[in-house]
Amino acid sequence: MTKNVKVITPVFRVSFPNVFQAKKNELSGKEEFSVVALFEIKNFSEDDKAKWNAINDKIKEMLLAKYGSLDKVPRKLEMPLKNGNEKFNDNPEKYLMYKDTMYTTFRTKIKPIVVPASLQGQLTDPKDFYAGCYARASVNISAWDFYEGKSLIKTGVSMYLNNLQKIKDGESFAGRSNPEDEFDAVEAAASSNENEVFDPMGGMGL
Fold it and tell me: Is 206 a residue whose pLDDT tops 50?
C-alpha cells in the first residue's frame, strides 16, 4: 500500500507563513514550521488544474489501496483540503481571504528551503515571503492512523511540507503595500546652500 507520495502543488496564496523559524504547535506541543495554502481554484491556470487533479487522484489511490473501496472510507476521515467558505462564514473579518478558496496547512519538523521564482539563491527574509504572496510547494501526501493503545482514535490523509517556491508578490494580507507601487521617482531639488539641511516638515516637525 502506498503511504507516502511526493507532489508539486498548484500555485496558492500564502497565509500565516511560519517557515523561517519553528513555532510551537499548541495541539501537539512540538516545534514545527508551517504555512497555510489558499487555493483560488477559479483562477487556476491549465497547469494548476492538472496539478490539482493529480493531488486528488493520489489521495483517492491511497484510500482505495487502504480500504479497497471508496464506499468503505470512514465518514470521519480527516482530509487535508477544506472549504475556505466555512472559515469565512465563522469570522468574515478575520478570514476574508479564505472566501471562495480551498485551503490546507502544510507542516514539517524540518526547516523548509524557500526559493524565488528564478531558483537563484534562497529567500531567508520574512519580508520576502509573506501572507499574501503567491507560491507553490513540494509536499508529501500521507495516509495515517492515530491509536491510543489498541483503539483507533483518528484516521486521515495529510500533506507534509518539503520546500517552497515563491512565484510572485501579491497584496499583503497585513494591508501594507510596496512603496514602489505607491510613488513615482522624482529628482532631488537643487539647494542654494550645499550645507543647508532640508527640513521636510518646514519647521513644523516635532
Answer: no
Checking if the pLDDT of 177 tops 80, the result is no
Cell 527574509 belongs to residue: 125
Using an 8 Å Cβ cutoff, are 135 and 164 in contact? yes
Look at the pTM and tell me if it is higher than 0.90. Answer: no
pLDDT the model gives residue 197: 43
pLDDT at 191 over 60: no
Judge contact between 1 and 65, C-beta under 8 A: yes
Cβ–Cβ under 8 Å, residues 20 and 113: no
Give the pLDDT score at 186: 63
Of the candidates 128, 146, 173, 159, which has an alpha carbon nearest to the alpha carbon of residue 58? 159
CB atoms within 10 A of CB 89: 12
DSSP string, 21-44: EEEE-TTT--EEEEEEEEE-GGG-
C-alpha–C-alpha distance, residues 9 and 17, integer Å:
16
